[in-house]
UniProtKB/TrEMBL annotation:
One of its GO terms (biological process) is organic acid catabolic process. Belongs to the HIBADH-related family. L-threonate dehydrogenase subfamily. This is L-threonate dehydrogenase. The active site is at K179. Pfam families: NAD_binding_11, NAD_binding_2. InterPro entries: 3-OH-isobutyrate_DH-rel_CS, 6-PGluconate_DH-like_C_sf, 6PGD_dom2, 6PGDH_NADP-bd, HIBADH-like_NADP-bd, HIBADH-related, LtnD, NAD(P)-bd_dom_sf. Keywords: Carbohydrate metabolism, NAD, NADP, Oxidoreductase. Residues 8-169 form the 6-phosphogluconate dehydrogenase NADP-binding domain. It comes from Alicycliphilus denitrificans. Coiled coil: none annotated. It is an enzyme of class 1 (oxidoreductase). It catalyses: L-threonate + NAD(+) = 2-dehydro-L-erythronate + NADH + H(+).
């Protein structure tokens, strides 16, 4: 196929990946998809596209492979499998492109670009943000970095999935650095929102009234408005789980520690998510960090 309309595959049909695959299909692509839950991939393919049985099959069929998994370890598995030879990389043709959408250590992303280059595979460091609803509507943000050749190979794939595609550098690393900083803010904002709502509950303020006032006042944040709605509903179904921020704020602190840069708010927020995780809320929505506060009755 032409560079402007490459054959595209997507691995990982979770909350974000499913919406991104749907956006690709809506833009006129017929995406090849793979998920460890085979029934999820098959359900997607009923409305267009192809469910691949193996990662190697997807790699062989696609010019562009988009990976939407949780972390670096899962990305390694997508690329190389458990035996080093059963992932997409073993079958991707020279000049094809791997788009990495996970939140990872920037230094790991830099090393992965070099590793794939030795195999003749192009690479885009392309973490994402926006949540499941924006993924489903093709409105996510992508923080990307890579060579001009990698962008040329992507064609219109990135724009099919995202409202904003930021080009942050001509080699890997910059995209992941910006995503790490975004996650610093996201994690701190969720922790602060939970603390504020918890104080309101402790002081006997009606939580719905507090939510209404704050979301129309200077103290509001996108995270307060979004996540405290989950608390009001008593719904901790994980769109983004507590353990995601255990991981992501851990990455934030690792990056800062390497240059001895102090991050007092990030450190506190990380401890809050760690406490929530060890208290049994690891797989609940990240708004469940509010459950660490004593002496309150949640809606």
């Amino acid at each position: 196929m032409s560079a402007s309309q490459p054959a595209v595959g997507l691995v990982g049909l979770g909350a974000m990946g499913m919406g991104m695959a749907q956006s690709l299909r809506r833009a006129g692509h017929a995406p090849h998809v793979f998920d460890l839950r085979r029934e999820v991939a098959q359900d997607f393919a009923r409305d267009g596209g192809t469910a691949c049985e193996t990662l190697a099959e997807l790699g062989a069929r696609c010019d562009v492979v988009v990976s939407v998994v949780v972390n670096a370890a899962q990305t390694e598995s997508v690329l190389f499998g458990n035996d080093g030879d059963s992932g997409v990389a073993a079958r991707m043709r020279p000049g094809s492109l791997f788009v990495m959408c996970s939140t990872v250590d920037p230094n790991w992303s830099v090393a992965l670009e070099a590793r794939l280059a030795r195999l003749g595979i192009l690479y885009l460091d392309a973490p994402i943000s926006g949540g499941a609803a924006k993924a489903a509507s093709g409105q996510i943000t992508m923080m990307t970095a890579g060579t001009p050749e990698a962008y040329a190979r992507a064609g219109g794939v990135l724009d099919a999935m995202a409202a904003k595609v930021y080009r942050l550098g001509d080699k890997a690393g910059a995209g992941s650095k910006v995503k790490i900083i975004n996650q610093l803010l996201a994690g701190v904002h969720i922790a602060a929102a939970a603390e504020a709502m918890a104080l309101g509950l402790r002081e006997g303020v009606d939580p719905a009234a507090l939510y209404e006032v704050i979301t129309h006042s200077a103290g509001n944040s996108w995270m307060f408005e979004n996540r405290m709605a989950h608390v009001l509903a008593g719904d901790y179904t994980p769109l983004s789980a507590v353990d995601i921020f255990v991981k992501d704020l851990g990455l934030v602190l690792d990056v800062a520690r390497a240059s001895k840069f102090p991050l007092p708010l990030s450190s506190t927020a990380h401890q809050m998510f760690m406490q929530a995780s060890t208290a049994g809320f690891a797989r609940e929505d990240d708004s469940a960090v509010i459950k660490i506060f004593p002496g309150i009755t949640l809606p």
